[in-house]
Design goal:
The complex is a heterodimer of chains A (about 350) and B (about 325).
Chain A lengths: L4 H14 L2 H21 L8 E6 L4 H10 L3 E6 L1 H9 L5 E4 L5 E3 L5 H17 L20 H31 L2 H6 L5 H31 L7 H23 L5 H18 L14 H6 L1 H13 L9 H21 L4
Parallel strand pairs in A: 1-2, 1-3
Antiparallel strand pairs in A: 3-4
Chain B lengths: L5 E9 L4 E10 L4 E5 L6 H8 L7 E6 L10 H7 L2 E4 L11 H9 L8 H8 L14 H13 L5 E5 L7 H16 L3 E6 L2 H7 L2 E6 L2 E6 L1 H6 L5 E7 L9 H5 L4 E6 L4 E5 L2 H15 L3 E8 L2 H9 L7
Classes of the chains: A mainly alpha (about 350), B alpha/beta (about 325).
Chain lengths: ~350, ~325
């Protein structure tokens, strides 16, 4: 059993990977670093800390005092030139010029600025004696699953599956080809199917660690849970990993040099880094682009992962995205096998 | 009558702008160590890779252990590969696997194979068993490559320039390994551009140039074909001005052939003790001053030079 060619090939593949510290970092460390940095940077997103400037003019300190007392606003008195700079660079969302009328200076295309104007105006009106006729009360809700980190972790998981699938398979195949190791294997009775299958198997071994590391990190540090079943996550990640391994095989099927395959790899991955909704929702792209964006395997994989992790959807509802992922994988494997350069 | 391990006829292989192999016939007999000797670019590697079934010839017929190569990774080709051991010239084994892991990997491709211990003992790498391949010396890497070729207990071993780039000691160690394989009843086809290697190791040698075999025989018979056993080389301090003519040199007693090179002139000589005094007397009469005088036993190098007019190493 241990001396079976498939076992030995898989072991060799696996050892070569874990004996490469750089590879370990990019596959396991990098996504966690990224999740940590982005999770920290965006943890208090929302209108909690709007900065408002008050232009130095008669009545400025009273106005600034009233604004600063309002929850969610932060006010400072600024000189004219300083105020211009801070407004332009977005360090203050709104500049209030005291006087009669009170002037609000802001960029109306910025959500934050419009929000700051509403908040500031309420303060100004009340200061001038407006009374609110209706009694209201606030009830604040923080729904787990609606934070940025909840959105981000499944996306990073998808992106990582893409990266490690493409690099893990593509790079090793081309390296074996440039070092004439592939040719040497061809001089033995090794079965070609065993060679290709060994990549898939070693990917699956690492997949488990990769997924567990990122999900475990999200859960421990940011309390990102999995609403759906772990079995569903496992099935989706295996499918995604196989699909990207196929794509990696395709990218590596002809390339003779590491440079060539690196270029191809980036060519394949770059559109998906940008379009597939890893860091922000792909709904922001124009309507006309949506069919294209949704046809990308990473988009489909991210959608499926988010559906399970955030919404708790059962697998049965994910036929469409999983179909897209599987179709890419099957098509890539078939084409790769046909055009593969065995030496 | 049993099949010879290797038989090929009329091999031709063309690449875009060169004819690498130009009509080559070869038969290698069982239990013999056969050498393809020739300069770089003579077509040795292309020939051996055609015989190994890694390159398809444009024309010609190849029979290995009585079978013909069938395409790709089919069952017939794999059955034949079970019986071969192959070392390729440019293969770099994975740096981050240990010696043991590498041999074990290659071993797993064969249905009958040596144990890892056995094959490492054959090539003398027992002590490096747990070392990473990347940490081995050039000679150790080559012995590992040969170990990967031997692990299948092959009947026929192909070695493509197994000792190129190795120091003399590492080269001798590999010769011992190859010699041991032949002594145990194996057949070897190796390529080399070291004449010394071919003379030491090979039962028969084919000298190749420009994709063809230009001489074939035992090293001894090839050298004997020069008609004399010694080579006397000399060079003159003042160049060509006072040099004796080729005809004058050929007329000296005991001289069988003369080759005037750019820097030095070589005489193929049957009797050194008669030819050298005569040569010195001739130069004395001409008033020419020697800057070099050397004699050596004739080698395959001299055979190559006499056939092509070029040196083996810089041809």
């Amino acid at each position: 059993m241990r001396d079976h060619a498939l076992v030995q090939l898989t072991l060799a593949r696996t050892r070569e990977f874990y004996r490469e510290p750089e590879a370990i970092f990019w596959v396991f460390g990098f996504p966690i670093v990224l999740a940590f940095a982005l999770g920290i940077a965006f943890r208090n997103r929302g209108p909690g800390e709007l900065r408002v400037g008050v232009l130095r003019a008669p009545g400025d300190s009273a106005l600034a005092g009233a604004l600063a007392r309002a929850p969610g606003l932060n006010a400072a008195v600024l000189d004219s030139s300083e105020a211009q700079v801070q407004l332009r660079t977005g360090r203050v969302a709104l500049l209030v010029v005291p006087g009669d009328p009170v002037v609000y200076r802001y960029d109306s295309t910025r959500t934050e600025s419009r929000l700051a104007r509403l908040e500031a105006d309420a303060v100004v009106q009340r200061a001038h004696g407006r009374a609110d006729p209706a009694r209201v009360a606030d009830q604040r809700v923080t729904e787990p699953g609606s934070r940025y980190i909840d959105f981000l972790i499944p996306g990073l998981l998808g992106m990582n599956l893409m990266g490690s699938g493409l690099w893990g398979v593509g790079f090793s195949v081309v390296q074996a080809r440039t070092k004439k190791l592939l040719k040497r294997f061809m001089a033995t009775p090794m079965r070609r199917s065993h060679y290709l299958l060994s990549f898939v198997l070693s990917r699956l071994l690492f997949l488990f660690v990769e997924v567990a590391a990122l999900i475990g990190f999200g859960w421990l540090v940011f309390d990102v849970g999995v609403r759906g079943s772990f079995a569903a996550v496992a099935i989706i990640t295996v499918l995604g990993s196989l699909s990207f391994a196929g794509l990696g095989m395709l990218v590596a099927s002809r390339a003779r040099t590491i440079e060539a395959v690196s270029g191809l790899m980036n060519l394949v991955m770059l559109p998906m880094w940008m379009l597939s909704g890893t860091f922000f929702s792909y709904a922001r792209f124009p309507e006309a682009m949506q069919p294209l964006v949704k046809a990308l395997p990473l988009t489909a994989l991210n959608d499926a992962l988010r559906a399970v992790m955030i919404d708790g959807s059962p697998l049965a509802q994910l036929g469409a995205p999983l179909g897209v992922v599987a179709a890419w994988g099957v098509a890539s494997f078939v084409v790769a096998l046909r055009i593969f350069r065995w030496r | 009558m049993p099949h010879p391990p290797i038989r090929c006829t009329g091999l031709v292989k063309r690449y875009a702008d060169v004819v690498a192999v130009a009509g080559l016939d070869l038969t290698v007999n069982a239990r013999e160590c056969f050498g393809l000797l020739g300069p770089n670019g003579a077509g040795k590697t292309t020939t051996i890779e055609i015989l190994e079934g890694l390159t398809a010839p444009d024309a010609g017929d190849v029979e290995i252990l009585g079978s013909r190569w069938t395409g790709g990774g089919g069952a017939a080709a794999r059955a034949l590969r079970e019986r071969l051991g192959i070392q390729l010239q440019e293969t770099q084994l994975a740096d981050k696997l240990t010696v043991d892991e590498t041999v074990r990997l290659f071993r797993s491709f064969y249905s009958a194979a040596h144990s890892v211990e056995e094959v490492l003992a054959l090539v003398g790498l027992e002590e490096k068993r747990t070392a990473w391949v990347g940490k081995l010396s050039g000679g150790q890497k080559q012995r590992l490559a040969v170990a990967c070729a031997l692990v299948s207990r092959p009947e026929l071993l192909f070695l493509d320039e197994p000792t190129t780039g190795l120091d003399p000691q590492a080269r001798r160690q590999l010769w011992d390994v190859i010699g041991g394989f032949v002594a145990a009843g194996g057949t070897v086809l190796l390529t080399t551009h070291y004449m010394e290697e071919a003379e030491r190791l090979c039962d028969r040698v084919a000298i190749m140039d420009h994709g063809k075999v230009i001489a074939l025989g035992t090293p001894r018979s090839l050298i004997a074909s020069l008609g004399a056993e010694h080579v006397v080389e000399f060079a003159l301090a003042d160049g060509a001005a006072r040099a004796p003519s080729t005809a004058e040199l050929a007329a000296l007693p005991g001289v069988r052939a003369v080759r005037a090179g750019v820097e030095r002139t070589a005489l193929t000589v049957a009797e050194v003790h008669r030819a050298v005094p005569a040569l010195l007397a001739l130069l004395e009469r001409r008033g020419a001053e020697l800057s070099l005088l050397a004699t050596h036993h004739a080698t395959l190098e001299d055979v190559f030079v006499s056939l092509t007019g070029r040196q083996l190493r810089d041809a």
